[in-house]
Amino acid sequence: MRRFFNYLLIxxxxxxxxxxTDSEPSISDKEYLPLHKGVYQIYDVDSTWYAPIDxxxxxxxxxxxxxxxxxxxxxxxxxxxxxxxxxADATQSWQYxxxxxxxxxxxRAVIAEGNTEYVKFVLPVSEGREWDxxxxxSLGEDEYELINTRKxxxxxxxxxxxCIEVNQNNDDDPIVRxxxxxEIYARGIGxxxxxxxxxxxxxxxxxxxxxxxxxxxxxxxxxxFGVQ
Length: 228
Fold this sequence. Notes:
Blueprint: H1 7-18, E1 39-51, E2 55-72, E3 78-87, E4 95-104, E5 108-113, E6 116-122, E7 130-132, E8 143-155, E9 158-172, E10 177-186, E11 190-201, E12 212-227
Antiparallel strand pairs: 1-2, 1-12, 2-3, 3-4, 4-5, 5-6, 7-8, 8-9, 9-10, 10-11, 11-12
């Protein structure tokens, strides 16, 4: 049976493992993405999809990610296998949804979402560092930037003392296309928040100029975490 922490224990756990200062060089920045067998996170997810035929559809569900295995890759380093599970709410059973993988070295943290690899952040962590998040895929250059490094962040009233934020894109164009994406990682915990707003607006032959043609608004917020 899975053991879940309540919010009080989450706060205590976060304080015990997420605190760090620049005077503690022995604490590795790799811990912004802890990769050990049994590590898991549970999130609340709200997403709204826009499509020409189906219109607007809003979905809420819970998402769990868990590190279930590891293996030596071609670089003689470990790649970690992650299972994703979904359920409508806590009254339902978890259902397997996907398999991802992750790896981290002294240079970068990479997560393969299905078959597509993204460089989530680079090491060492430093305010303003930039890199191509699509270095290992064929989607075209996508410049990411580290901001708000080693600072507190609050996710649904849970405070994490030591976090980094990755600004993946911040193009807020309400006429043609909006593309705003960001992720926040907490030391010792991993991803605690993911926000995506990608909207394509109608400019020709519209019922109303500027109406949303296609797109998604996605919010993923951590609620529980730990080690099995």
